[in-house]
């Protein structure tokens, strides 16, 4: 740490305290100095306040610009997108940009959600103003410093590629940083006119590419330091089970095992390295009090859900008079859909390293919620939150699993480190991950649709049965209204299809279980889009209409749905003749403020579906990095397709039947279709990119299966249902 | 003590014979570029080369590697094919979360070393043991084809 002392009269925020090497000057603006943005160009920002730029970027005397990320990089390319926003307004030299995850601190609270979180496909739109403002504010300060130094008015200066320019003179930002940090904070800042953007909107290569290609990128799993132990925890084979007793004599004989300690979630084996911890855990004998979950069975559970679906639930949406509309007769569609529990299974198994000291604590973990984890560690250690430093390395995938309000793996790791009395990295095996809960909840949907004389739905009754994700979380207060968790019915209760159907009713039964559930990439939409887009397809076929035309009629007045739908259909040449044995299916769904349509082209080979090609169109409003948007669509299609084809977590005698990638199957290269992504040109309200590509893929594929075989897939995964037919 | 040749250097490691190469590399030799993903040769994140052949280091005991050469992601740029693969990975901007990519690159390098012009079917066969939860498969396929054409 080599911070310049001559700017000490300014208050450094905490962010400056962990600069690693090099002379780095942080701009420092007292917390209290926040200003509302004046002027037209800021109207979109609403009540946004000027950010504290020093929390978001640092300029080194070596001209390096370090951008601090309030969100975690877990594949979605935010490591590149957020710096693009700053670099645009700062006129930075792109090659000088360095990136770090921010610590857990109030400065990084989500601009819309009020806590530090990466989730909801919200990073780009929620930071679009804040990061640009941080860049613009800093540029203003640098210009003022240069004006003072040169004795010219700011108006005589311009900026380009990390330099202030005056005639032939070019002053690198690094030379102005110290002087700029002494200046009074501007009270207003003007953002660039979009027509002047040089970086925003341009396909930009990932800044984290090189280190992820040469093996130097550090993930939580890679944290190592002298004295750090590795722990594995023996957990109950069924959810809710408790340790009755344990015998650690054999475990302690394993070379490299140091200690065995009991923690609330089980018994932890502390060892020099993973291999010793694993062998120690295998040698450990634990007797469990299994409790009532030992009889849990997926088939029985679906039967219970089915029984609930026969009864009235809580009303989530209602319009018109369903009773009269159904009594009026007409063609009736009745269908039941079911979807299983799903594990996130990020490639990097869960892990968390913790070093508890007398009056401080350091935590290293790939997390989507550092503030929440900080509070969880505080609770276990008895330290204050501000005594706990959260280091966030790269996340080897998240998909929601690393954003857990219950902070399960971090809390457990804190208990382990505390009980062991030494720095410990608690590591989960793949089996621990697959069997470890916090799944996408299983759901059962029951729907009844009456078609009018025109073949369009005249009445729609829809009941959902499943667990609430939001219950018991800090989001409960605003996500659960009158007992209805909005995420349980999102994509149905707020469906634009239903808005155009005069009589409809959506009901919800929220179930309880010892199986803990969590948001899984695209949350409720991961099951509702499958059901809605299948039902619309069923209705279209029942009315004898083209499934694309049917959707177009139902989506009247919803131009963004239509734009995505029409673009996908056009690029997939919907309606044109396909080679023999090939069939198409289509789906469109809005989620996280983005509109995605997909056309899947399939064949049936030896009783299994083969997806050859997926044409995807998205309207997510303004796009900051088009290539990372394309990558997210490819990613979402792979993620959603793998789940639709094969993934399932099921229970028998209380135990999860799956354990590793041989029986919890995810998409592999051989099943990956060709993906073509088309972006709807749009300056409309920005939406998300990380999740909205997931929901449409399952119904696009199953709708194609119906076109091919006449068999309606109403249960996921597709598995071997076609072989049985 | 067991002597393992890792990336051209003989290293004396205090390990048991049954310790998988993965943990000898990661936890003992402290080369963390090779990743743990499943522990049962199902995901390919742990792929390294043993005398040039791609192996799943999570299930291969260290004793198997004695007297042979282990190459990991940290050293693959020293290999002409590995270098071409990494360059293609960069040009096509393959990675997302990145966790599986060391293994992907090691598998792709081994594929191209034995089959300089792989078809899509060859790529499916050689690469389907490497899972990527981010779904970078289309770009991996494109990058392998590109590296093949650069090496031709």
Verbal overview:
The complex is a heterodimer of chains A (725) and B (152). Helices cover 29% and strands 23% of the residues of chain A. Chain A is an alpha+beta fold and 725 residues long. The relative contact order of chain B is 0.16. In chain B, strands 2-1-5-3-4 form a five-stranded mixed sheet, with helices on both faces. Chain B contains six helices and five strands; from the N terminus they run E-E-H-E-E-H-E-H-H-H-H. Chain B has helices spanning 21-28, 62-65, 80-92, 101-114, 120-127, 137-151, and strands spanning 2-6, 9-13, 47-50, 53-56, 69-71. In chain B, helix 3 (80-92) crosses helix 6.
Summarize the topology.
The complex is a heterodimer of chains A (725) and B (152).
Chain A lengths: L23 E3 L26 H4 E4 L4 E5 L8 H13 L6 E5 L21 H28 L7 E3 L2 E4 L2 E4 H9 L27 H5 L15 E7 L6 E6 L1 H5 L3 E7 L2 E6 L2 H10 L1 E5 L8 H12 L4 E6 L2 H6 L4 E8 L11 E6 L4 E4 L5 H12 L6 E4 L16 H13 L3 E4 L2 H6 L7 E9 L5 E11 L8 H4 E2 L2 E2 H4 L6 H4 L3 E9 L13 H18 L4 H8 L4 H13 L11 E9 L2 E12 L2 E12 L6 H20 L5 E2 L2 E2 L17 E6 L17 H13 L11 H4 L1
Parallel strand pairs in A: 3-4, 8-18, 16-17, 20-23, 26-29
Antiparallel strand pairs in A: 1-2, 2-3, 5-6, 6-7, 8-11, 9-12, 10-11, 13-23, 14-19, 15-16, 15-18, 19-20, 21-22, 24-25, 25-26, 27-28
Helix pairs in contact in A: 2-3, 3-4, 10-11, 16-20
Chain B lengths: L1 E5 L2 E5 L7 H8 L18 E4 L2 E4 L5 H4 L3 E3 L8 H13 L8 H14 L5 H8 L9 H15 L1
Parallel strand pairs in B: 1-5
Antiparallel strand pairs in B: 1-2, 3-4, 3-5
Helix pairs in contact in B: 3-4, 3-6
What order do the strands of the largest sheet of chain A run in, or round the barrel if closed?
Answer: 10-11-8-18-15-16-17
Which shape of chain A, going by the Cα principal axes?
globular
Proportion in helices of chain A = 25-40%
Main structural class of chain B:
alpha+beta
CATH class of the largest domain in chain B: Mainly Alpha
Mean pLDDT across all amino acids of chain A: 92
Count of β-strands of chain B: 5
Radius of gyration of chain A: 27 Å
Strand content of chain B: 5-15%
Alpha-beta classification of chain A: alpha+beta
Number of domains of chain B: 2
Q: What's the CATH superfamily of the largest domain in chain B, by name?
A: [2Fe-2S]-binding domain
Biggest pleated sheet of chain B: 5 strands, mixed
SSE pattern of chain B: EEHEEHEHHHH
Please count the beta strands of chain A (DSSP E, at least 2 residues each).
Answer: 29
Percent of residues in helices of chain B comes to: 40-55%
Protein name (chain A): Xanthine dehydrogenase family protein molybdopterin-binding subunit
Domain Aldehyde oxidase/xanthine dehydrogenase a/b hammerhead (chain A): 214-292
Keywords (chain A): Membrane, Transmembrane, Transmembrane helix
InterPro entries (chain A): Ald_Oxase/Xan_DH_a/b (IPR000674), AldOxase/xan_DH_MoCoBD1 (IPR008274), AldOxase/xan_DH_MoCoBD2 (IPR046867), AldOxase/xan_DH_Mopterin-bd_sf (IPR037165), N-heterocyclic_Hydroxylase (IPR052516), OxRdtase_Mopterin-bd_su_IorB (IPR012368), TAT_signal (IPR006311)
């Amino acid at each position: 740490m080599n911070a310049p002392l001559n700017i000490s009269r300014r208050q450094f925020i905490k962010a400056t305290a962990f600069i690693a090497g090099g002379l780095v000057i942080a701009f420092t603006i007292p917390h209290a100095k926040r200003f509302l943005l004046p002027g037209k160009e800021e109207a979109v920002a609403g009540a946004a306040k000027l950010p504290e730029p020093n929390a978001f970027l640092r300029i080194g005397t070596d001209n390096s610009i370090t951008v601090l990320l309030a969100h975690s990089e877990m594949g979605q390319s935010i490591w590149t997108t957020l710096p693009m926003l700053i670099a645009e307004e700062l006129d930075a030299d792109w090659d000088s940009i360095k990136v770090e995850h921010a610590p857990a601190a109030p400065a990084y609270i989500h601009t819309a959600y009020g806590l530090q979180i990466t989730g909801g496909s919200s990073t780009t739109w929620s930071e679009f103003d804040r990061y640009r403002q941080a860049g613009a504010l800093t540029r203003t300060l640098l210009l003022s410093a240069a004006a003072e130094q040169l004795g010219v008015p700011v108006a005589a200066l311009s900026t380009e590629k990390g330099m202030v320019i005056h005639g032939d003179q070019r002053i690198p930002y690094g030379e102005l940083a110290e002087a700029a940090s002494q200046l009074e904070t501007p009270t207003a800042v003007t953002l660039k006119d979009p027509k002047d953007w040089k970086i925003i909107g341009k396909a930009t290569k990932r800044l984290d590419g090189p280190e992820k290609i040469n093996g130097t990128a550090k993930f939580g799993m890679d944290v190592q330091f002298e004295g750090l132990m590795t722990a594995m925890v023996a957990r109950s084979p069924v959810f809710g089970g408790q340790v009755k007793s344990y015998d650690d004599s054999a475990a302690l004989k394993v070379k490299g095992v140091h200690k065995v300690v009991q923690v609330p979630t089980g018994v932890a084996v502390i060892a020099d390295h993973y291999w010793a911890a694993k062998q120690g855990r295998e040698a450990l004998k634990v007797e469990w009090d299994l409790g009532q979950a030992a009889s849990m069975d997926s088939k029985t559970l679906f039967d219970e859900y089915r029984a609930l679906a026969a009864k009235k639930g809580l009303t989530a949406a209602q319009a018109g008079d369903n009773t009269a509309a159904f009594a009026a007769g007409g063609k009736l569609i009745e269908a039941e859909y079911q979807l299983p529990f799903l594990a996130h299974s990020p490639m990097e198994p869960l892990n968390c390293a913790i070093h508890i000291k007398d009056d401080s604590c350091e935590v290293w973990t790939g997390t989507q919620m550092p503030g929440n984890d900080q509070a969880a560690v505080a609770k276990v250690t008895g330290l204050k939150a501000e005594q706990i430093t959260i280091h966030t390395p790269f996340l080897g995938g998240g998909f929601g699993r690393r954003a857990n309000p219950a902070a399960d793996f971090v809390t457990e790791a804190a208990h382990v480190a505390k009980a062991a009395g030494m720095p410990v990295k608690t590591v989960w095996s793949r089996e621990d991950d697959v069997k470890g809960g916090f799944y996408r909840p299983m759901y059962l949907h029951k729907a009844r649709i009456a078609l009018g004389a025109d073949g369009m739905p005249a009445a729609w009754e829809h009941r959902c049965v499943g667990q609430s994700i939001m219950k018991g979380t800090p989001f409960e207060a605003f996500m659960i209204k009158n007992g209805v968790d909005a995420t349980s019915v999102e994509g149905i209760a707020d469906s634009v299809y239903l808005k155009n159907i005069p009589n409809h009713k959506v009901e919800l039964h929220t179930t309880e279980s010892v199986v803990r559930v969590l948001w899984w990439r695209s949350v409720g939409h991961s099951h509702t889009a499958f059901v809605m887009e299948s039902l619309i397809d069923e209705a279209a076929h029942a009315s004898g209409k083209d499934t694309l035309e049917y959707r177009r009629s139902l989506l009247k007045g919803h131009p963004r749905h239509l734009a995505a739908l029409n673009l996908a259909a056009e690029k997939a040449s919907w309606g044109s003749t396909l080679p023999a044995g090939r069939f198409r299916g289509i789906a469109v769904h809005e989620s996280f403020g983005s509109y995605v349509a997909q056309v899947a082209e399939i064949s049936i080979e030896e009783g299994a579906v083969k997806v050859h090609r997926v044409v995807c169109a998205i309207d997510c409003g303004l796009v900051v990095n088009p290539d990372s948007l394309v990558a997210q669509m490819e990613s979402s299609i792979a993620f959603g397709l793998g789940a639709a084809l094969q993934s399932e977590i099921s229970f028998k005698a209380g135990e999860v039947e799956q354990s590793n990638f041989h029986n919890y199957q995810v998409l592999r290269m051989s099943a990956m279709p060709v993906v073509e992504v088309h972006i709807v040109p749009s300056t409309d309200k920005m939406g998300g990119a990380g999740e909205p590509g997931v929901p449409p893929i399952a119904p696009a594929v199953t709708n194609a299966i119906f076109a091919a075989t006449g068999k309606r897939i109403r249960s996921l995964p597709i598995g071997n249902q076609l072989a049985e037919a | 003590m067991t002597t393992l040749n890792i990336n051209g250097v003989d290293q004396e490691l205090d390990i048991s014979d049954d310790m998988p190469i993965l943990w000898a590399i990661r936890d003992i030799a402290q080369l963390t570029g090779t990743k743990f993903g499943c522990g049962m040769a199902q995901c390919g994140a742990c792929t390294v080369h043993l005398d040039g052949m791609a192996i799943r280091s999570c299930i291969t005991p260290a004793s198997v590697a004695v007297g042979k050469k282990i190459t990991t992601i940290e050293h693959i740029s020293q290999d002409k094919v590995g270098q071409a693969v990494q360059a293609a990975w960069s040009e096509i901007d393959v990675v997302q979360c990145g966790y599986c990519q060391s293994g992907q690159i090691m598998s792709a390098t081994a594929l191209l070393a034995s089959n300089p012009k792989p078809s899509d079917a060859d790529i499916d066969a050689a690469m389907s043991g490497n899972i990527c939860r981010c779904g970078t498969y289309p770009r991996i396929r494109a990058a392998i084809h590109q590296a093949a054409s650069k090496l031709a």
